[in-house]
Write a structure and sequence with these properties.
The protein is α/β, with parallel strands linked by helices. The chain is built from five helices and nine strands. Strands 1, 2, 3, 4, 5, 6, 7, 8 and 9 form a nine-stranded mixed sheet that branches. A hairpin with a 5-residue loop joins strand 8 and strand 9.
């Protein structure tokens, strides 16, 4: 069975809205493109490595529209490797509306996202969810993910859509590898979903040595 892997870029206060540019999601948000000044070669290498083995994309409607307008025109350019990958593999779109599926290899998923996500696991080895914050809330809430890659950037915005904006439920995750930090302060964290819900305890208990 394959994996569903969420890729998110977030600020220190866990805002994930419009990291890449001012036109991504501008309504009521004036910090579009906040990631660009903090991006470095280390983060770039981490992102490239994160997409190795990806054989499908699962995207929300807004992210799909942004990607469909951009990536088909980037082959042969600076981002050729990712452009070639994204243009080649299947794209699955979660939307309550009727998206324009002009990007080759795109499919509109049905209304039962849980069943659709489980079906993607059966058909693919490595399904990537990029951005798509509204979709991510459903995946988090229903625990329909296997891995969460989170790039934390050293900036606080105080406004914007959050990574855990309505999708947070009691969930256990474990760190899969040591955190990696870039020269501009971005920290890469890779988590895997673990069964159960968070345990509780008493910090003053004898076995804590307090």
């Amino acid at each position: 069975m394959g994996l569903i892997q969420i890729e998110l870029f977030a600020t220190l206060d866990l805002v994930g809205q419009a990291p890449g540019g001012p036109d991504e999601d501008p309504e009521g948000f004036r910090f579009g493109g906040w990631q660009a000044p903090l991006f470095d070669d280390v983060a770039g290498a981490q992102v490239a490595a994160a997409y190795e083995g990806t054989d499908a994309l699962l995207l929300g409607r807004r992210t799909y529209d942004i990607f469909a307008a951009y990536w088909p025109h980037q082959q042969g350019g600076e981002d050729d490797d990712i452009a070639t990958l994204f243009n080649r593999i299947p794209k699955y779109v979660a939307s309550r509306g009727t998206p324009d599926l002009s990007w080759a290899g795109s499919t509109h998923l049905g209304p039962d996202l849980g069943a659709e996500a489980r079906g993607l696991r059966e058909r693919h080895e490595n399904v990537k969810v990029v951005g798509s914050l509204d979709l991510v809330q459903t995946l988090l809430r229903e625990k329909l993910f296997d891995r969460l890659d989170l790039w934390l950037h050293p900036v606080v915005l105080g406004v914007g859509k959050k990574v855990f904006d309505g999708g947070a439920v009691p969930t256990n995750v474990r760190l899969l590898e040591p955190p990696a930090a870039g020269p501009r302060g971005t920290v890469f964290l890779r988590y895997g979903l673990v069964e159960g819900i968070p345990a509780t305890g008493d910090m003053a208990a004898p076995d804590r040595g307090v």
